[in-house]
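Project outcomes to date are best conveyed with an example. Our students and postdoctoral researchers have been running inverse folding experiments weekly, and each run begins with a structure described purely in tokens. The record below, which covers 397 residues, was selected by the lab manager from last quarter's runs and is presented without edits.
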């Protein structure tokens, strides 16, 4: 069912509770090092305040334990959001309680208030009904625009929606965009549809692989998870990272996949994972004492050839340890190829958040692909074919 969007909510004179994802990285001095998630929330916030609504924003930041911690305060976010909106963003000292109620009740149409970190309360992650009711009391309608946490039933993502009730619950523009790109790619892809999966563990991607094998034309494997598949094929992998307890599962996946599941044909190996490591390329077995850290040049050529004709691509997980210079080539090549086919053939290219999003940003190509997801874990679960209760509970059109 299509979900009601923020544009379909009557917001004038209304206090609109908006669950955003402002879980941004901070340096040791407390400065924001990447504001993409704040920027991604701007269309929804602007839609509310430009139509005479009052935006009451909720978010978590980090993993504070045992109560409030200044290290995880959202105050730097309030400052940056104010700069981006070009207006004052008031900051509440808590997300509930008298101080939060006072600042929210004092709002005028067009005002923006950011509540303090919802995870300063232990009830947030437990979806505590008392906390959810306190949060819900601060608003008259509810918008969820936090795709990065949409797979978690917390007080601010599920409990509040439950308390607000039907008729006044919607998704924001960011979630609408995420659902469109990821949903269309998985259910109505332009073909050929190619999935690229990397990262360290097969166990993290089992359900994704199983789901995508029934939908994609090809599934390309990279990263350390490839070495578990190599073991399943009887190859030697030296001291490469692998999951020995998942070898039998990898063998079954290979059997079920046939030619759809494509593994690296060569690998960049080294004795150590450093910026100055001495590397070499091997096909077949990896010698004892050596470790695989990236796909090799022949694999890059093979994957580029497959991607050249692709019309829909979903990428989740790097091809190697792209943070280290000697092992960047594979991930960089994939990023370049996706940017190229997006531009040259209008292919739909979707980066599934997490390390893949970090990589495409690092290489300066984020604006050259169709969509970069803001939710690593959420996009992964979406690709597994799971439903999201936090979105399901919102109003249908």
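After processing, the design step wrote out the following sequence:
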């Amino acid at each position: 069912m299509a979900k009601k969007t923020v544009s379909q909510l009557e917001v004038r004179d209304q206090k609109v509770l908006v669950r955003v994802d402002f879980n941004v990285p901070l340096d040791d001095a407390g400065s924001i090092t990447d504001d993409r998630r704040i920027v991604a929330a701007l269309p929804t916030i602007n839609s509310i305040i430009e139509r005479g609504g009052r935006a009451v924003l909720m978010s978590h930041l980090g993993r504070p334990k045992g109560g409030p911690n200044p290290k995880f305060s959202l105050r730097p976010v309030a400052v940056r959001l104010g700069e981006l909106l070009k207006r004052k963003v008031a900051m509440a000292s808590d997300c509930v309680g008298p101080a939060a109620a006072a600042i929210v009740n004092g709002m005028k149409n067009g005002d923006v208030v950011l509540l303090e970190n919802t995870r300063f309360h232990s009830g947030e992650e437990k979806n505590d009904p008392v906390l959810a009711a306190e949060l819900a009391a601060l608003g008259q309608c509810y918008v969820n625009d936090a795709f990065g946490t949409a797979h978690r039933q917390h007080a601010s993502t599920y409990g509040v929606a439950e308390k607000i009730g039907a008729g006044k619950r919607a998704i924001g523009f960011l979630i609408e965009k995420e659902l469109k790109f990821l949903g269309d790619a998985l259910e109505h892809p332009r073909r050929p549809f190619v999935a690229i999966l990397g990262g360290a563990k097969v166990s993290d991607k089992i359900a994704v692989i199983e789901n995508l094998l029934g939908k994609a034309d090809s599934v390309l494997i990279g990263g350390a998870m490839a070495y578990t598949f190599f073991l399943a094929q009887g190859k030697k992998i030296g001291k490469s990272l692998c999951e020995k307890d998942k070898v039998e599962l990898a063998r079954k996946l290979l059997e079920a996949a046939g030619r759809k599941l494509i593994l690296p044909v060569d690998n960049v190996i080294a004795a150590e994972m450093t910026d100055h490591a001495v590397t070499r390329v091997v096909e077949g077995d990896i010698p004892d004492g050596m470790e695989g850290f990236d796909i090799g040049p022949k694999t890059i050529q093979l994957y580029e050839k497959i991607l050249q004709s692709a019309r829909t691509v979903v990428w989740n997980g790097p091809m190697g340890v792209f943070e280290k210079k000697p092992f960047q080539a594979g991930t960089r090549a994939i990023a370049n190829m996706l940017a190229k086919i997006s531009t040259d053939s209008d292919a739909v290219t979707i980066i599934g958040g997490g390390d893949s999003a970090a990589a495409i940003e690092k290489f300066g190509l984020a604006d050259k692909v169709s969509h970069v997801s803001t939710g690593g874990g959420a996009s992964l679960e979406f690709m597994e074919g799971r439903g999201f209760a936090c979105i399901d509970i919102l109003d249908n059109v």
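The first strand starts at residue 15 and ends at 19. The chain has two domains: 6-176, 189-383. The training component of this project remains on track.
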